[in-house]
């Protein structure tokens, strides 16, 4: 993969009327990279995709491809193709006619269109379906026709606007693999909008998490999953359990003070953005261990332990999921075996699976200074001692 920037977005602002959606957004994408724009509804990811495609004019900033400014060019002159969420296939046209539509608009001769359409039908597993119309196809087949129509014009950049959201879960698993494998095979640059965390994780080389028109964090799937930069990112990446703790930072470690429902423990700082005070402790249901509350069952070092009692247990598949009351809070914890309602339990979370953030905003943190990591877009904070 070429490490040089191919698609560059600088200071991009955009909105609808008086409503500002994107605010001075910067983003660089390398040639051949698959980038997923991930976020909840209204975060600005689709607006960003539409601005890249040319269907929305930004109020400020620029968009360039391979050094060429395309900010004010119409969509058909940007060298991009967009696959819509609804597929937008012509219902009166056959598969072959839909795929070849863009080539016909370009003025290619019929033999060349037929050859190119045949190549794409074979590439996308649509051989033998060229004479069918969209109504006679499955959802997965319609999605591949829409992808074929986009690829037919040999775009420099492929834009995908939640193209899998209309598929059922079983088909979606296969098609997401098909798209990812095809993108790697062709070496095409792709920008994929989705609200599905797992979809972004398995398809993208890099994930850009958006919140309120800004980039909350970007990095490889492993980076954003294992090192979320903020409580928002941690929650969005599945660490929805949250409990408040108090402690201090010093000597490369975080000392968690004993509380009504937790024991004192010492955790490695490990680059965490922390200063002494009140912490929000976040963790995933599958990251914790659930044990019976028995005498002498102290937690090992570098592990946080809470006590509580089981409220409910259910089996969503793979493990039993328990709702556990911890003081005035409830958390979800997975276990290979079920615990009965009312059972006193201990919840253990290893340090590497625990995400700690100061409860106060960064500007309110006393005696904190920061180190900027430009590659990951994170701020690593340590406390002065």
TrEMBL record:
Query: How is this protein named in the record?
Result: ABC transporter ATP-binding protein
Family to which the UniProt record says this protein belongs:
Belongs to the ABC transporter superfamily.
Please name the PANTHER family in this protein's record. Answer: SPERMIDINE/PUTRESCINE IMPORT ATP-BINDING PROTEIN POTA (PTHR42781), SPERMIDINE_PUTRESCINE IMPORT ATP-BINDING PROTEIN POTA (PTHR42781:SF4)
Q: Where is this region: Disordered?
A: 365-385
Cell cycle keyword on record: no
Q: Which domain of life does the protein's organism represent?
A: Bacteria
**Keyword line:** ATP-binding, Nucleotide-binding, Transport
Gene3D superfamilies linked: P-loop containing nucleotide triphosphate hydrolases (3.40.50.300)
Q: Does the keyword Nucleotide-binding apply?
A: yes
Drop me one GO molecular function for this one. ATP binding
Q: Which PROSITE patterns match?
A: ABC_TRANSPORTER_1 (PS00211), ABC_TRANSPORTER_2 (PS50893)
Q: Which residues form the ABC transporter domain?
A: 7-237
Q: Where is the composition biased (Basic and acidic residues)?
A: 370-385
């Amino acid at each position: 993969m070429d490490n040089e920037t191919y698609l560059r977005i600088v200071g991009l602002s955009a909105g609808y009327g008086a409503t500002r959606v994107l605010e001075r957004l910067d983003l660089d994408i390398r040639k051949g990279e698959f980038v997923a724009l991930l976020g909840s509804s209204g975060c600005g990811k689709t607006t960003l995709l539409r601005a890249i495609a040319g269907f929305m004019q930004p109020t400020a900033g620029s968009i360039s491809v391979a050094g060429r400014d395309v900010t004010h060019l119409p969509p058909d002159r940007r060298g991009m193709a967009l696959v819509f969420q609804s597929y937008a296939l012509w219902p009166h046209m056959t598969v072959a006619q839909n795929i070849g539509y863009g080539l016909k608009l370009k003025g290619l001769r019929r033999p060349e269109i037929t050859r190119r359409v045949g190549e794409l039908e074979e590439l996308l597993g649509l051989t033998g379906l060229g004479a069918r119309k969209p109504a006679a196809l499955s959802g997965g087949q319609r999605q591949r026709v829409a992808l074929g129509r986009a690829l037919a014009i040999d775009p420099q950049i492929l834009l995908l606007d939640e193209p899998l959201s209309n598929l059922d879960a079983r088909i979606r698993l296969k098609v997401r693999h098909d798209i990812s494998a095809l993108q790697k095979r062709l070496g095409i640059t792709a920008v994929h909008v989705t609200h599905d965390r797992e979809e972004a994780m398995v398809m993208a080389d890099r994930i850009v998490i958006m919140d309120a028109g800004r980039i909350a964090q970007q990095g490889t799937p492993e980076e954003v999953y294992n090192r979320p930069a903020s409580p928002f990112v941690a929650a969005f990446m599945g660490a929805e359990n949250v409990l408040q703790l108090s402690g201090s930072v010093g000597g490369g470690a975080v000392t968690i003070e004993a509380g009504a429902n937790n024991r004192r423990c010492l955790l490695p700082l490990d680059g965490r953005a922390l200063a002494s005070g009140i912490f929000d402790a976040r963790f995933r249901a599958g990251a914790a261990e659930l044990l019976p509350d028995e005498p002498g069952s102290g937690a090992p070092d570098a592990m946080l332990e809470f006590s509580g009692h089981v409220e409910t247990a259910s089996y969503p598949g793979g493990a039993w999921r328990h709702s556990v009351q911890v003081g005035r809070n409830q958390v979800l914890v997975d276990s290979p075996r079920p615990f009965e309602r009312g059972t006193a339990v201990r919840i253990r979370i290893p340090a590497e699976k625990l995400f700690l953030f100061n409860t106060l905003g960064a500007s309110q943190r006393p005696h904190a200074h920061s180190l900027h990591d430009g590659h990951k877009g994170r701020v690593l904070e340590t406390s002065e001692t």
